[in-house]
Amino acid sequence: MGFNRFAQRCSNSAVGLLLLAIATLALMVLSVSGCASPTKSSDDSRLKVVATTTQIGDFAKAVGGDAVQVRTLLPAGASAHHFDPTQADMIALADADVLLTNGLGLDDFVNDAVEASGFHGKKVVTTGGVVPDGSNPHVWTAPVLAGQMVENIEVALAEADPKNAAAFEENAIGYQAKLQILDQWIATSISTVPSEARLFVSGHDALKYYLEAYDIEFVGSVLHSFEDNAEPTVAEMDELIAHMNELGVKAIFVESSINPKTAEAIAKGSGAKLIDESVIYVDSLGAEGSGASTYITATIHNTKTILEAWGYSVTAVPGELK
Ligand SMILES: [Zn+2]
Fold this sequence. Notes:
Blueprint: H1 3-9, H2 13-21, H3 23-33, E1 47-51, H4 54-64, E2 68-72, H5 87-95, E3 98-101, H6 110-117, E4 122-125, H7 143-160, H8 165-190, E5 199-202, H9 208-213, E6 217-221, H10 234-247, E7 251-255, H11 261-270, E8 273-280, H12 295-310
Parallel strand pairs: 1-2, 1-3, 3-4, 5-6, 5-7, 7-8
This protein binds zinc ion.
Zinc ion binds at residues 80-81, 138, 204, 206, 226, 283.
């Protein structure tokens, strides 16, 4: 295969000249510009969707089905508050029709990449209208709110690809029905726990909407901000330990994205059990094979982990969610 073919497929004549002159460098230019990459499947006319978080990527796959290609920027098991895009991410952004973000300051990291990549599609904030501006960004943690994000995703995909709008609607309705079943299952399971025993301490304040939905008291978090490196002061740790002792908190939950060292110190000081052998998935879903690689399986896992740490068990998981 000659370089002339690439040059013909690439509309930029300057790049074409460079191709003929310096072959190796030209290949690099091609891959950066996203212009007629030889490995790209040019007959794939499906809508190209880029999602920032693993949860939004999962929702987009559920709604888009076979009609869309979804690329997720954040890796499994990572914090959702920091991200360094790879060159492949930049190429995907340059090529994307739709970019689905969380908004509320969570994934502002994508802004520079959007600008640098030459992204020319439509950027959609999936939490738009779900919670007020300035709210805690971890909106997806309550299945009912996740269902509203799914609605926003459906609208965005239908606008970008009207010929598949009916399929997106059908997929969204089916997925939202599952989220309702998930919500009911969590509510039923947690209703077996006396309200005074529903006490929650986590790495960062990431489960706000889940806790509110199921009447669980947020006692405090190891980190006081959403900055991954924001270590608490000794006074802050002592205050949290005192508060935990006062309420009789039994367990600290450490998210998959949090370094557990500080949590260990607080667990030691308070006598609470550190739940780190079976982390909860909050900022991101688990990797393939973790049993928590989808929003539904991760939320089931979290609910089981929380109830077991309190000394309770969940009710049987409905067949629709398996
Ligand atoms: Zn977070």
